[in-house]
Amino acid sequence: VIEYSDDLGRLSPADLDGFFQGWAAPPTPGQHLKLLKDSYAFLVAIDIREERVVGFVSAVSDGVLSAYIPLLEVRPEYRGQGIGRELMSRMLEKLKGLYMIDLSCDEHLVDFYERLGFQPARAMLLRDYRWREGK
Ligand SMILES: CC(C)(COP(=O)(O)OP(=O)(O)OC[C@H]1O[C@@H](n2cnc3c(N)ncnc32)[C@H](O)[C@@H]1OP(=O)(O)O)[C@@H](O)C(=O)NCCC(=O)NCCS
Questions:
Q1: What angle do CA 115, 79, 56 make, to 5 degrees?
Q2: What is the C-alpha to C-alpha distance for residues 62 and 41, in angstroms, rounded to an integer?
Q3: pLDDT tens for each residue of 40-87
Q4: What is the pLDDT of residue 116?
């Protein structure tokens, strides 16, 4: 059974170990917890039986017009069960009332996001690799 929560009290850094799969310089679990805490909104998916955080999504926002969704991830062994879609749907519910909700994604996820109501657009990205390990 998967439960969705935005309760920080239920989270410790150890719960977040192993996310950011494939990242060259992943944030530490402590940084991960901080970025969730400092986000405008976040949600985690918890496997209740295993007492394990299996996915998360975060959003930053000005709270008036716009939000950006920088991170969404489901642990590999839990993918393909609708958890990513549910995390996004619930996040969109939290962001309701905001005019602009943006994110960038790889080509293979265009369908995934289109089904959630997003439309493709051109994005411009700036990355400063000196800071890729986070602050
Ligand atoms: C993208 C991600 C969060 C999706 O999570 P998930 O729990 O597997 O997604 P869901 O099970 O809710 O999938 C919903 C639909 O999208 C499709 N889909 C999901 N991930 C996909 C992928 N990588 N490529 C193609 N289609 C995908 C599924 O086939 C599913 O379609 P269906 O409803 O017809 O069965 C997950 O693959 C992940 O963590 N990837 C690595 C991190 C990442 O890329 N994050 C997104 C950053 S923009």
A1: 80
A2: 11
A3: 999 999 999 999 999 999 999 999 999 999 999 999 999 999 999 999
A4: 98
Cα 119 to averaged position of ligand 1 atoms, centre (Å):
17
Cα 50 from Cα 91, distance rounded (Å):
24
User: Does residue 135 carry a pLDDT above 90?
Assistant: no
Q: Best substitution site from 74, 86, 113, 116 to test ligand 1's pocket, by max atoms within 8 Å of Cβ? A: 74
Rounded CA-CA distance 50/70 in Å is 27
Mutate to test the pocket of ligand 1, among 85, 89, 92, 110 (most ligand atoms within 8 A of CB): 85
Alpha helix segments (H runs only) across the chain:
29-37, 83-94, 110-114
If you ran DSSP here, which 8-state letter would residue 113 be given?
Answer: H
Minimal-distance CA residue to ligand 1 atom 42 = 73
In the three-class reduction of DSSP (H, G, I as helix; E, B as strand; rest coil), residue 71 is classed as strand
**4 among known catalytic residues:** no
